[in-house]
Design goal:
Elements lengths: L1 H5 L3 H22 L4 H21 L5 H4 L7
Helix pairs in contact: 2-3
Length: 72
């Protein structure tokens, strides 16, 4: 529904959200004082959740597949 209002496809909205997810999840993990290993697990969990959502809605999850390491 948001995609229509933004004048974008669902895939475009997903790609934008997925590309910003690692930085956002990393920031949240740091605010929670997670160590490096915990941060990696947290970001990986978010990546997997995004990939599951993409699958559920028939979108390509290519934009999350290579997001294995959080930004430093």
């Amino acid at each position: 529904m948001a995609a229509k209002r933004l004048g974008k496809t669902q895939q475009e909205v997903y790609d934008e959200l997925a590309s910003s997810m690692p930085a956002f999840a990393t920031k949240q993990a740091k605010e929670t004082n997670y160590d490096t290993a915990q941060t990696q697990l947290y970001v990986d969990a978010h990546r997997k959740a995004y990939e599951s959502l993409a699958e559920e809605f028939g979108l390509s999850s290519d934009s999350t597949t290579n997001l294995r390491h959080p930004p430093t």
